[in-house]
């Protein structure tokens, strides 16, 4: 049975019709308690979901949907290490990476927790030695710059956290990130660096990702060329992977390999050894504070009742906006320059997790799954895509993210930032009626300016607030989005932890790479054939 056959889904469909012509702001007048059940706080995070087109009755139906989707069991299953990724037959135990002590009694969990502890110690030792100048290059010089080579989950999280917590950086060891196979990404990072004092961390769960392996190969050539010997490579490379044997085959010294577990998804892995660059950048205490903040949110998610549970409520509000109010996209707009990489990180987290069309019953969904997740930072976004948000025909729901204090922005600057964030949330809800422009002079007889100036409003948005941006509050914020993503996957009856859809493109790219190095061309459609022929002509060297 599809989730659309559930009684709560039917009821919600009726609520959407009932509320269709309702103004969000009128719901505040109708129910003075609105903020009490639509504004929640936990783990240094306050979330205001009240600018959403739903009332208490509708919210109760969403909570019923969560019950009917057996959410309590699903939450227990993920924390207890049950198989929640059935197409890869794996648990998803990112919460264990930030666990304080094992609350799980069975031997398997204890063993896994032991592995977590061992890697945490390995990270702490390595980052302490790195930041204290104890890791020396082939020439004996202390390392000054660390370059993480990885892509997707082996890049976005660590890069985003290091960038967001840039004012928390402790040591003067530079931390850099290379991900794209476009050679200019590696070139841009290496140009200002010295091979003598540069160290590479090759991060790849599979140790089989083409872009990462090619960037690592080029980086090792850069080192070998500079020292005129490949013997220098082991002194300048470490690896983070669940396939240690492949890293050894690549030439990484086994003592510089940080294991990743198969029960951690790439896009949920910044808390694992993948966080090594974070520990080097902000110190291992800083990394532990990040884990602690996330753990606080885990405890809230695990224990709070549905209606007081921020990840669950945010997930259900997302389902309401997407599946019942027809929002096609979801914008993430942090009003903080330090969070500029967050939208890209959440794109992978949410869209690679829930961009699915087949249910866990192997049937096609007859409902939408994840909306298009996109975004940008405020206030820049106001002068870019907000025109569409206010007057466009396509519906978007929005998460504003607001940090109330800022250690590197004057009060005047910060006042204006906060004022604009709050104003945009209000204006998307309120809009502005045509009749408020009646006194506006029309430029010509043909133009009714009031019509062009009217903004419909009633655009659903949520404001996520934290008092300050610390490793703890950032950890809690990211864990919030991870749990929101999991809950939506449960409601949509899909597997949030696999990504089979990315494989075909990789396979075709590999065969085209073979063609470009002279192998017989594989069968292509005329358009692909013509594109390759065009490239071969310009590239030369092959017919
Ligand atoms: O292609 C998608 C993906 O598999 C992501 O899920 C993953 O985070 C990324 O590529 C990198 O994979 P790996 O860590 O195995 O190199």
Major sheet strand order = 1-2-11-10-8-9
Strand content: 5-15%
Average of per-residue pLDDT values: 96
Gyration radius, rounded = 25 Å
Largest sheet: 6 strands, mixed
Q: Which ligands appear in the coordinates?
A: 6-O-phosphono-beta-D-fructofuranose
Main structural class: alpha/beta
Fraction of residues in helix:
40-55%
Q: How far apart are the termini?
A: 55 Å
- Quaternary state, please? single chain
Total number of helices: 19
Shape: globular
Question: How many β-strand stretches?
Answer: 11
Which parts are unreliable, with pLDDT below 50 for 5 consecutive residues or more? none
Helix-strand pattern, N to C? HHHEEHHHEHEHEHEHEHHEHEHEHHEHHH
Structure description:
It is globular, with a radius of gyration of 25 Å. Strand 6 (about 235-240), helix 10 and strand 7 form a beta-alpha-beta unit. It is of the alpha/beta class. The chain has a six-stranded mixed beta sheet with strand order 1-2-11-10-8-9, with helices on both faces. The longest helix is centred in the middle third of the chain and has 28 residues, at about 275-305. The chain has helices spanning about 5-20, 25-30, 35-40, 55-70, 70-80, 105-130, 155-165, 185-190, 210-225, 245-250, 275-305, 310-325, 340-355, 385-390, 410-430, 450-455, 470-490, 505-515, 525-540; strands at about 40, 45-50, 145-150, 175-180, 200-205, 235-240, 255-260, 330-335, 370-375, 395-405, 460-465. The site of 6-O-phosphono-beta-D-fructofuranose has 14 residues, from loops.
């Amino acid at each position: 049975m599809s989730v659309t056959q559930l009684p709560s889904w039917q009821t919600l469909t009726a609520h959407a019709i009932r509320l269709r012509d309702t103004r969000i702001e009128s719901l505040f007048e109708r129910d003075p308690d609105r903020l009490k059940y639509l504004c929640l706080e936990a783990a240094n995070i306050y979330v205001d979901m009240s600018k959403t087109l739903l009332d208490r009755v509708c919210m109760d139906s969403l909570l019923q949907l969560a019950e009917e989707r057996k959410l309590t069991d699903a939450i227990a299953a993920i924390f207890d290490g049950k198989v929640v990724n059935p197409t890869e037959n794996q648990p998803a135990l990112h919460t264990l990476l930030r666990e304080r002590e094992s609350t799980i009694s069975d031997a398997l969990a204890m063993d896994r927790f032991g592995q977590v502890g061992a890697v945490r110690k390995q990270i702490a030792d390595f980052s302490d030695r790195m930041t204290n100048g104890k890791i020396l290059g082939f020439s004996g010089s202390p390392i000054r710059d660390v370059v993480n080579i990885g892509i997707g989950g082996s890049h976005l999280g660590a890069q985003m956290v290091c960038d967001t917590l840039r004012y928390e950086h402790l040591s003067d060891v530079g931390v850099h990130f290379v991900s794209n196979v476009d050679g200019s990404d590696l070139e841009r990072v290496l140009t200002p660096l010295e091979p003598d004092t540069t160290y590479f961390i090759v991060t790849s769960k599979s140790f089989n990702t083409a872009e990462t392996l090619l960037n690592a190969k080029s980086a090792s050539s850069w080192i070998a060329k500079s020292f005129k010997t490949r013997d220098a490579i082991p002194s300048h490379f470490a690896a983070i992977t669940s396939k240690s044997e492949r890293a050894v085959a690549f030439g990484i010294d086994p003592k510089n390999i940080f294991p990743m577990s198969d029960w951690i998804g790439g896009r949920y892995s910044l808390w694992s050894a993948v966080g090594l660059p974070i520990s080097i950048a902000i110190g291992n205490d800083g990394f532990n504070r990040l884990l602690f903040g996330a753990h606080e949110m885990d405890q809230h998610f695990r224990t709070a009742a549905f209606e007081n549970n921020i990840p669950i409520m945010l997930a259900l509000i997302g389902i309401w906006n997407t599946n019942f109010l027809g929002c096609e996209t979801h914008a993430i707009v942090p009003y903080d320059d330090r969070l500029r990489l967050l939208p890209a990180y959440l794109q992978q987290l949410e869209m690679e997790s829930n961009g699915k069309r087949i249910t866990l019953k192997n049937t096609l969904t007859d409902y939408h799954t994840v909306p298009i997740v996109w975004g940008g930072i405020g206030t820049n976004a106001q002068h870019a895509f907000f025109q569409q948000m206010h007057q466009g025909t396509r519906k978007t729901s929005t998460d504003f993210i607001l940090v109330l204090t800022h250690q590197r922005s004057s009060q005047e600057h910060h006042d204006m930032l906060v004022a604009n964030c709050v104003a945009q949330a209000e204006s998307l809800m309120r809009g502005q009626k045509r009749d408020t422009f009646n006194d506006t002079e029309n430029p010509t007889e043909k133009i009714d300016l009031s019509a062009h100036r009217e903004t419909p409003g009633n655009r659903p948005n949520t404001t996520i607030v934290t008092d300050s941006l610390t490793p703890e509050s950032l950890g809690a914020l990211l864990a919030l989005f991870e749990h929101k993503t999991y809950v939506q996957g449960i409601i949509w009856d899909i597997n949030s932890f696999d990504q089979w859809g990315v494989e075909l493109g990789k396979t075709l790219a590999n065969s085209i790479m073979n063609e470009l190095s002279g192998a017989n061309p594989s069968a292509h459609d005329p358009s692909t054939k013509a594109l390759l022929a065009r490239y071969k002509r310009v590239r030369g060297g092959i017919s």
